[in-house]
Amino acid sequence: MLAQLKRLGGDSLLYALMNVGTKLIAFLMLPIFTAYLGKEQMGVLENIDSFTSMLTFLVIFGTDSALAFYYFDTKNRELKMSFVQTVLQFRLAVAMLCLLVAAVGGEWMSLLITKESGHGIVILAAMVTLVLESVITLVLTYYRYEFKAKKVVIYTVIRLGAAALLAYLFLRMWSEEVDVIYFGRNIAAGFIVLLLLPDLFKLIRIKVDKEQMKAILKYAAPLVPASLAFWIIATSNRFILTYFEGVGSAGLYGVAVKFATVITLLTSSVQMAWRPYTMSIKDRPDAKKIFSKFYLIILLGGIIGLLGIATFIPYIFKFMISNPEFHSASQYIALLSAGTFLNFYYLIISVGLFIKKETKIISVYFGAAAALSFVLNVTLIPLLSQWGAALAVTISYLFATVMIFIRSQKTYYVPVPVGKMITLFLAGMAAMGVLVWIHNAGLPGYYLVFPWLFFAAVFGASRVLKEIKS
Questions:
Q1: Cβ(140)–Cβ(160) under 8 Å?
Q2: 84/82 Cα distance (integer angstroms)
Q3: Residue range of the domain that includes 392
Q4: Same domain assignment for residues 460 and 399
Q5: What is the pLDDT along the chain (470 residues), one digit of tens a residue?
Q6: In contact, 131 and 99? CB cutoff 8 Å
Q7: Which of 106, 170, 220, 298 could bridge to 66 as Cys pair (CB 3.0-4.6 Å)?
Q8: Where is the signal peptide, in residue numbers (predicted)?
Q9: Do 414 and 402 meet the contact criterion of CB atoms below 8 Å apart?
Q10: Total number of domains in the chain
């Protein structure tokens, strides 16, 4: 048992470090990209990446969860390998179809995605990336199921690190155009595929097992709508911004989003620990009281973090992003960070749904949030531009979080002071809004103290600290 715990702990630490490392690599490339690319080129990169991420959902099509189920549902080694081969066949077929469409209709896709012609070669390169990453992801998934965590981490870090290095070198020495970024990604991914060839040959099979394919897709298909709903909320607004204002607007907004999502470096570690922890104490007589305290602690920590972002991010942004063309993006980061926090916080306050195994309703609420997001984007972007996009995504996540919390409380009541939670959240959002306004209005820096004092007063009056200590 001790050996199993050590392996679990070691693998978890490796994956956590990999997660942090890959996010940091992506974030640290942002100053480089914005230094060489203008708003329009960044918009092209944002839109094509967003479009590719949607295609990735279709390529995977929930088969990751299906494969996990069937792989560990049998002890037959040949059958395990057969399921991996079937999933690889499906993913390659869908990815190759995307590549074929891009090869034939790249310019049409360019107009659809960026509202500009001339980006067909970039889209084709992105589809090559999609094919290569479909192969790499499947092989690395197989390694994870075989508990080869070191291989997963090494190949992942090498691929992302090489892609980042090549992108920098190509931008500096070859061309200040977005296509060279994809060329770098493809070279890095191609190199990893070559390294994986010995195991990849074992997974390649020409003949399709129709029964296995049917079983996998039957299991996987219900998971796809939820993934698409998350995509609609998080990224579809780039295309709506492009439609109304041009691809440069999407580029500016995308830079703000990348800064806002950096907080996932902190929330992802809590997220990884939260589910096992809650399941481990759910049968304790004081479990609900413990959950209540964590609801408050995490909400309070999140609000303080958001106030910190609103206070300091304009200075950090200008320090990191040298190109003044992007400096106005800093004003949206705090609001977008609030949306990112809410997308994490729903996992905390939905503990009852997981304990009672009623998680399907989460997909329903996020489906409704996706529809709300589309309506808000179409309505608000023409009126408020990037502010409209930021409001749409944050309101949509807030809607989903509130609905999930209400349903979770009905399913498994946690005695949390809801009124105080609402008061803290509203006071925090008001203080955050004032902090952003102070920066935008160019007021003296000491004005930033007053929103903090306001929130501190509300916090003290709410006596939330007493609730936590009790």
A1: no
A2: 5
A3: 223-469
A4: yes
A5: 444 444 444 444 555 555 666 677 778 888 999 999 989 999 999 999 999 988 988 898 888 878 888 888 888 888 889 999 999 999 999 999 999 999 999 899 999 999 888 899 999 999 999 999 999 988 988 888 887 878 888 888 899 899 999 999 999 999 889 999 999 999 999 999 999 999 888 888 888 889 999 988 888 887 788 788 888 998 899 999 999 999 999 999 999 999 998 887 777 767 767 776 787 788 888 889 989 999 999 999 999 999 999 999 999 999 999 999 999 999 999 999 999 999 999 989 998 888 887 878 888 999 999 999 999 999 999 999 999 999 999 999 999 999 999 999 999 999 999 999 999 999 999 999 999 999 999 999 999 999 999 999 999 998 888 778 77
A6: yes
A7: 220
A8: none
A9: no
A10: 2
Given 153, 184, 208, the domain boundary residue is 208
Q: Is 6 exposed, middle or buried (0-12, 13-18, 19+ CB in 10 A)?
A: exposed
* 399 within domain boundaries: yes
Q: State how far the Cα of 134 lies from the Cα of 162, in Å rounded to an integer.
A: 18
H helices of 350-385, in order, are 351-355, 360-384
Question: Residue 153 corresponds to which tokens in the numbers above?
Answer: 């981490």
Number of H helices, E strands in the chain: 20, 0
350's CB contacts (< 8 A; 6+ apart) are 359, 362, 404, 405, 408
Q: Tell me which of 152, 173, 208 is where a domain ends.
A: 208
Same domain, 256 and 199: no
Number of other residues whose CB lies within 10 A of the CB of residue 295 = 22
> What one-character DSSP code corresponds to residue 1?
-
- Answer whether residue 334 is part of any domain: yes
Q: How far is CA 123 from CA 91, 134, 145, in A?
A: 19, 16, 33
**Dist. CA 379–CA 366, nearest whole Å:** 19
- Residue 443 DSSP one-character state: -
Q: Which residue in 403, 404, 398, 411 sits closest to 288, CA to CA?
A: 411
Q: Which residue has the tokens 């479990």?
A: 287
